[in-house]
Design brief:
- With 172 residues, the protein is of the alpha/beta class.
- It has a single domain, classed as Hexapeptide repeat proteins (UDP N-Acetylglucosamine Acyltransferase, domain 1), CATH 2.160.10.10.
- 23% of the residues lie in helices and 19% in strands.
- The protein has helices at residues 25-42, 45-65, and strands at residues 68-69, 74-75, 88-89, 94-95, 100-101, 106-107, 111-113, 118-119, 124-125, 129-131, 136-137, 142-143, 152-154, 159-162.
- It has a five-stranded parallel sheet with strand order 1-3-6-9-12, with no helix packed on it. It has a five-stranded mixed sheet with strand order 5-8-11-13-14, with no helix packed on it. It has a two-stranded parallel ribbon with strand order 2-4.
- Strand 13 (152-154) and strand 14 (159-162) form a beta hairpin.
- Helix 1 (25-42) runs antiparallel to helix 2 (45-65).
- The longest helix is centred in the first third of the chain and has 21 residues, at 45-65.
- The radius of gyration is 16 Å and the shape is elongated.
Length: 172
């Protein structure tokens, strides 16, 4: 999992969500969520009808990917789901801009994710907690406490493996 330092933690890069192929389940699942939220925000009859269509599309891609990402979740722009299988995101979790979530990741309730946070495959984040901007969560890590900006955590339970300037044991 390579962490691109040129990706912003504050400005969304909408091209990260672009559908580029016919069979592109990650971006299509995100697109269904975005379009559902936009249709609901209109509040008109056409918006309500369109939102029902996007519910069906969302359910299709949710079944295909075996993922549970709720339609009303707060997801900032630029989310990447390179391998969107088995992702479970609690509806009260909040995702910052330009994050990347690999397969089998779980975010429990009240998890607040900053900008440009990458989650390795199988990571479990058990809130309530906050993950700071530009952090990385390693594959199969189990995170049970706050992660400061810029840190890389891994293991079960998660421990700092990179980015701590002072004492690696003091990472919150």
């Amino acid at each position: 999992m390579e962490h691109d330092l040129n990706v912003s933690a504050t400005e969304p890069d909408w091209s990260r969500e672009a559908v580029t192929r016919f069979w592109d389940p990650g971006p299509k699942l995100i697109r269904a969520i975005r379009r559902y939220q936009a249709a609901r925000a209109k509040g008109t009859l056409i918006g309500r009808l369109a939102s029902k269509y996007w519910v069906v599309v969302h359910r299709f891609w949710s079944v295909v990917t075996q993922s549970e990402i709720h339609l009303n979740m707060e997801i900032a722009g630029g989310l990447r789901l390179p391998h969107p299988t088995g992702i479970i995101l609690h509806p009260d979790a909040q995702i910052g801009v330009n994050c990347m979530i690999f397969h089998q990741v779980t975010l429990s309730d009240a998890v607040i994710v900053g900008g440009h946070v990458d989650f390795g495959a199988g990571a479990k984040v058990l809130g309530p907690l906050t993950i700071g901007d530009n952090a990385r969560v390693g594959a199969n890590a189990v995170v049970t406490r706050d992660v400061a900006p810029g840190l890389t955590v891994a293991g079960t339970p998660a421990r700092v493996i990179a980015g701590a300037k002072d004492n690696p044991a003091d990472w919150t």
